[in-house]
Amino acid sequence: MFDQIYRKAVLTVANNKSVEGLVRKQAWGVAQRFVAGETIDTAIAAVQDLHKQGILGNLDLLGEFVDTPEKANEFAEQILALLNAAEGKGFPIYASIKLSSVGQGLTVNGEDLGLTNARRILRRAKALGGFINLDMEDHPRVDITLAQFRTLVGEFGHDTVGTVLQSYLYRSEADRDSLDDLKPNLRIVKGAYLEPATVAMPNKADVDAAYRKLVYAHLKAGNYCNVATHDESIIQDVKHFAIAHGIPKSQYEFQMLYGIRRDLQKSLADEGFTVRAYIPYGPDWYGYFSRRIAERPANVLFVVKGMLKG
Ligand code: FDA
User: Fold this and answer.
1) Cα(296) to centroid of ligand 1, in Å?
2) For a designed S-S bond to 294, which of 10, 48, 61, 120 qualifies (C-beta 3.0 to 4.6 A apart)?
3) Does ligand 1 come within 6 angstroms of the Cβ of 295?
4) Contacts 24+ apart (CB under 8 A), 228-232
5) What CATH code is assigned to 36-284?
6) Ligand 1 within 6 A of CB of 142
């Protein structure tokens, strides 16, 4: 319950325009712990650094809720530029996109622009031997994102495109079952948006239990699972579950956010697990940064201290 109240308070304050102005101006130094710079070059350098430590990267150009076709197309062009820039840099090409950023919900030439742009991005990613994950956003977008995921897996295959399920949503267990025929590559997360109790579990213990259930079901079905969490007890349980059920390390990986639990990322990589850090970059870092702060009370102090230091 405290988690919910805290998250709601931080996200409500963060939505205030004057707070945004202040944080954007004063907190960039702190934000750089979670965001790998504002340009493609800084993002690629971050992947290369992690790669040296045995950790893979998952690049994410930040940006949300684009409202015109021009902006959506421009955003898609920037992702294509990222893929092109990452070619031949010595690491596997892997990126995440939010369909809302590339035009989901805008109809152009009789088709959803998010789908059209996702196809352009996937065509390029496939040609480069890369992989694109479709991030999951707030609950009104789940139906359309899963439908578009189904279409895209049909066209590009499950080794080129994956998506995400959020354990806080009551619907996710049924969604996972319904996707099984695709043998989908799924990232399981707890969920980062402010959602009403009618659609998302308000109690953290329920979200954690649902998380384990989703991962176990996905692994048991023989599918590839991206276990995306910093929750050490879940990570331990997944390792034990995999051993008990004879699931090889090649069928799953651990994913964490850039700058969070770097110690744990390194120790899992040293144990021989595939570990991938989600590396956000770009000038539009504020929304992402607010969600990370809303996840953990200690992070507010971290930000305030950083802002006071100037
Ligand atoms: P939980 O919040 O219970 O935290 C467990 C422990 O992790 C904490 O006690 C703390 O030690 C540490 N921790 C967690 N968050 C921290 C933070 N911000 N700063 C410092 N320590 C922290 N969500 C979504 O809705 N759609 C998506 O597509 C994605 N994609 C995604 C990709 C990847 C790779 C990750 C890791 C996460 C996401 N998420 C996401 C975010 C996810 O839904 C969730 O909000 C965060 O991962 C935090 O939840 P945990 O599972 O880490 O557990």
Assistant:
1) 9
2) 10
3) yes
4) 228/164, 228/187, 228/188, 228/189, 228/254, 228/255, 228/256, 228/278, 229/188, 229/189, 229/190, 229/254, 229/256, 230/256, 230/257, 230/260, 230/261, 230/264, 231/190, 232/264
5) 3.20.20.220
6) no
Tokens of 199: 């659609």
Residues marked as catalytic: 135, 187
CB atoms within 10 A of CB 275: 22
Long-range contacts of 267-271 (CB under 8 A, 24+ apart): 268/235, 269/53, 269/54, 269/55, 270/54
Query: ipTM of this model?
Result: 0.97
Sign of the Cα torsion 240, 166, 252, 281 reads negative
First-to-last CA distance in the chain?
34
Contacts of residue 206, defined as CB under 8 A and 6 or more positions apart, other chains included, come to none
Q: For residue range 147-204, what is the model confidence (pLDDT) as tens digits?
A: 999 999 999 999 999 999 999 999 999 999 999 999 999 999 999 998 999 999 999 9
**pLDDT tens string 291-309:** 888 777 677 666 666 555 5
Tokens of 16: 């205030």
Closest-lying ligand 1 atom to the alpha carbon of residue 98: 28
Rounded-to-integer distance, Cα 197 and Cα 5, Å: 12
Protein residue with least CA distance to atom 5, ligand 1: 231
**The one-letter amino acid at 278:** Y
Give the H or E element holding residue 264. helix 262-270
Q: Domain-by-domain residue ranges, the chain?
A: 36-284
- Tell me phi and psi for residue 96, to 5 degrees: -115, 145
Check: CB of residue 204 under 8 Å from CB of residue 233.
no
CA distance 125 to 47: 17
Q: How many CA atoms within 13 Å lie on the side-chain side of 139?
A: 16
| Residue 136, C-beta contacts closer than 8 angstroms, at least 6 positions apart | 142, 145, 163, 164, 165, 166, 189, 191
